[in-house]
Amino acid sequence: MRDDEPPGASRDLLGQAPAGVAGLGRDLGFVERVFAGLAPSDPPIRSRMRLRMAVGVVLYLAWTAWAIGLRVEHGIFAGLFLGLVAWSPKTARFAWLLLPFFGVGILYDNMRLFVGLRADTIHVADLYHAELSWFGVQGPSGLETLPEFLQRHTHPILDFLCGLAYITYLAQVFVIGLVFYVVDRERFTQLAWTFFWVNVAGIVTYLVYPAAPPWYVAAHGLGPAVLTAVPSAAGAARFDALIGVGLFESFYSRNANVFGAMPSLHCAYPTVVFLTARTRGWRWSVPCGLFAILVMFSAVYLNHHYLMDVVVGVAYAVAAFALVHVGRSVLRKRAHDPVRALVSPPAVFGQDR
Predict the structure, then answer these.
(1) What is the pLDDT of residues 146-177, one digit of tens each?
(2) Can you tell me the distance from the alpha carbon of 257 to that of 56, in angstroms, rounded to the nearest whole number?
(3) How many domains does one find in the chain?
(4) Cβ-Cβ contacts under 8 Å for 98 (sequence gap 6 or more)
(5) Could you list the residue range(s) of the whole structural domain that residue 182 is in?
(6) What is the C-alpha separation between 109 and 101, in angstroms, rounded?
(7) Chain segment 59-76, per-residue pLDDT in tens
(8) How far is 112 from 315, CA to CA, in rounded Å?
(9) What Cα–Cα distance (Å) separates residue 24 from each residue in 34, 89, 94, 302, 334?
């Protein structure tokens, strides 16, 4: 504690120190501050941070124009982000905290570029037989995978519930994230960065272990991968038929990666939300937990994932949550320790001073 910091002085949920300790933790670099959830501590740092964000948007637009071509949504995204940065320090901070979500959007926008980097071996038959070995169920003609079993036991009520859960899984992350931004920014930052890193891990896995989903095997068999296979809504098409709107058909028609079944990020996302919300009491943990279970069942019931994909997706979520929690704890301790701030080396991402 510094001499000018009163005993018991506290910090807000963004790590903003009282005026007497405003300079504490400035040894952390810009990206480290974002990761730790620490707010800018004085106007010069805040102004510099806003300038960096604006330059980042310009670089993003330049890259997009060169690599994949600009679309209307890119202009909308850039305009919204720049508007938040320019409007006021408070809205700039909001945009600053949204960086992990924007980063995920940029990753997926560039997914078509990554597909060319994936491994040559597409896992079709080996993954199918592994699923049979671990989670096979008895069918009329012997062992079959759980997705195959469920395709023979569909029901309109399940079609609707599973389809609804499967199309709102991403909205849940954003809605809960917005609530946390208002009521609990510590959890918001934890959620945002766990969401970012679980997506990075998922995309890397798609590249090094491209895997065919169950619907692909049903359509094309267990032979060599058909690289020209068209994306499919699979069992989710039953939901489209029920509501009379091709939501899943439209969504999956834009899918750039047919062979991205392992892991199931559909299941990872609600798991991340559950892990973040679970300690706020049963009013949070029970609904979030039940929704996560429903999405997991839906992934298999709608023939999009094997149970192995689900298990690995959940494991990725748990690992990302734990790593972010530990990493942020280390950074926050470093930022709040005046002794370490005096002796620690420069941050690897550069200084904010």
Answers:
(1) 999 999 999 999 999 999 999 999 999 999 99
(2) 27
(3) 1
(4) 192
(5) 119-333
(6) 12
(7) 988 988 888 888 888 888
(8) 26
(9) 16, 20, 22, 52, 10
Closest CA to 292 of 255, 324, 318: 318
- Judge whether 106 lies within some domain: no
Residues 6 or more apart whose CB falls under 8 angstroms from that of 168 comprise none
- With tokens 């009013």, the residue in question is 283
CA distance 172 to 180: 12
The partner residues of 139 in beta bridges, in order of sequence, read 142
Task: Supply φ then ψ for residue 122, to 5 degrees.
Answer: -95, 125
Is the whole-model pTM more than 0.85? Answer: no
Q: 250 in a domain, yes or no? A: yes
Q: How far apart are CA 319 and CA 125, in angstroms?
A: 28
Compute CA 310 distance to the chain's CA centroid, rounded to the nearest angstrom: 15
Handedness of CA 203, 207, 209, 212 (dihedral sign): positive
Query: Is residue 349 included in any domain, yes or no?
Result: no
What is the H or E stretch that residue 143 is in?
A: strand 142-144
Q: Is residue 273 part of a domain?
A: yes
Place of tokens 């003609």: 141
Please report, as a single letter, which amino acid is at residue 323.
L
